[in-house]
């Protein structure tokens, strides 16, 4: 198996989940704006607009960049995307595309520094909590090592994970960041440790 993991080997906790987690209450508008741009690039913008609940439409169609967006508004956005019926693979692809769209703003400096110093998937994964805190107000991440080239990240305290489209997009975003630092990457979603507001992404690479 890629990564050299043996089922009997206990996971090594690199970053433990906190005992108490404040749920996500706000989301950086930069992320949602990039996602809205994707609907335009793919020719789905008009259908997306129709899928937004009327009470949120005006705010979502004129967001202010670089501000905190209330969770209710971000939820309306991702539910509208989900209503378009994209397959899981499409949502993952859009998440990967977001690395190019928002990387320079959200985590570009950190990624460039890691690339210049010979970073690995492990060194960039260790930065995930920092990236998360810049994008989400609340929630938490944990990181465990299963082998030299295999591990998983847990995301907890984020109700957006109840939306299938968002789960796929977050999967793609994480994979897109990790893939910068390896030749080939395999990522799959597993059951989260804390119910519907959590997700585990397990990665193997070469």
What does this structure look like?
There is one protein chain. The chain is of the alpha+beta class. The chain has a single domain (12-205), classed as H-NOX domain, CATH 3.90.1520.10. The protein contains nine helices and eight strands. The chain has helices at residues 29-41, 45-51, 54-60, 71-83, 88-106, 108-116, 121-125, 128-135, 164-179, and strands spanning 12-15, 26-28, 68-70, 136-137, 140-147, 150-156, 185-190, 199-205. The strands form two sheets. Strands 1-5-6-8-7 form a five-stranded antiparallel β-sheet, covered by helices on one side. A three-stranded antiparallel β-sheet has the order 3-2-4. A hairpin with an 8-residue loop joins strand 7 (185-190) and strand 8 (199-205). Helix 2 packs across helix 4 (71-83). The chain is globular and about 50 Å long. The termini are close together. Mean pLDDT is 88; it is low at 1-7.
Tell me briefly what this model is:
With 206 residues, the chain is of the alpha+beta class. The chain has helices spanning 29-41, 45-51, 54-60, 71-83, 88-106, 108-116, 121-125, 128-135, 164-179, and strands at 12-15, 26-28, 68-70, 136-137, 140-147, 150-156, 185-190, 199-205.
List low-pLDDT spans: 1-7
Report how far the terminal alpha carbons are from each other. Answer: 11 Å
Question: Can you count the helices?
Answer: 9
CATH architectural group: Alpha-Beta Complex
Biggest sheet strand line-up: 1-5-6-8-7
Give helix % range: 40-55%
Named CATH topology: H-NOX domain
Tally of extended strands?
Answer: 8
The Cα radius of gyration reads: 17 Å
What is the subunit arrangement here?
Answer: single chain
* Domains, number: 1
Question: Beta-strand percentage?
Answer: 15-25%
Q: How are helices and strands ordered from N to C?
A: EEHHHEHHHHHEEEHEE
* Main beta-sheet strand count, sense and barrel state: 5 strands, antiparallel
Question: Can you tell me the CATH class?
Answer: Alpha Beta
């Amino acid at each position: 198996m890629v990564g050299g993991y043996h089922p009997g080997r206990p996971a090594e906790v690199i970053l433990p989940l906190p005992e108490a987690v404040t749920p996500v209450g706000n989301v950086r508008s930069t992320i949602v704006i990039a996602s809205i741009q994707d609907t335009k690039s793919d020719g789905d913008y008009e259908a997306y607009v129709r899928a937004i609940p009327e009470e949120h439409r005006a705010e979502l169609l004129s967001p202010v960049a670089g501000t905190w967006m209330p969770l209710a508004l971000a939820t309306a956005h991702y539910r509208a995307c989900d209503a378009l019926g994209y397959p899981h693979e499409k949502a993952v692809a859009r998440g990967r595309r977001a690395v190019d769209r928002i990387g320079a703003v959200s985590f570009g400096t950190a990624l460039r520094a890691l690339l210049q110093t010979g970073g690995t998937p492990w060194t960039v994964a260790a930065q995930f909590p920092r990236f998360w805190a810049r994008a989400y107000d609340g929630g938490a991440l944990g990181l465990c090592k299963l082998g030299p080239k295999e591990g998983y990240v847990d995301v907890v305290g984020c109700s957006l994970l109840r939306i299938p489209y968002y789960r796929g997009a977050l999967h793609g975003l994480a994979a897109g960041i990790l893939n910068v630092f390896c030749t080939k990457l395999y990522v799959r979603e597993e059951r989260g440790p804390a119910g519907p507001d959590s997700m585990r992404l397990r990665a193997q690479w070469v």
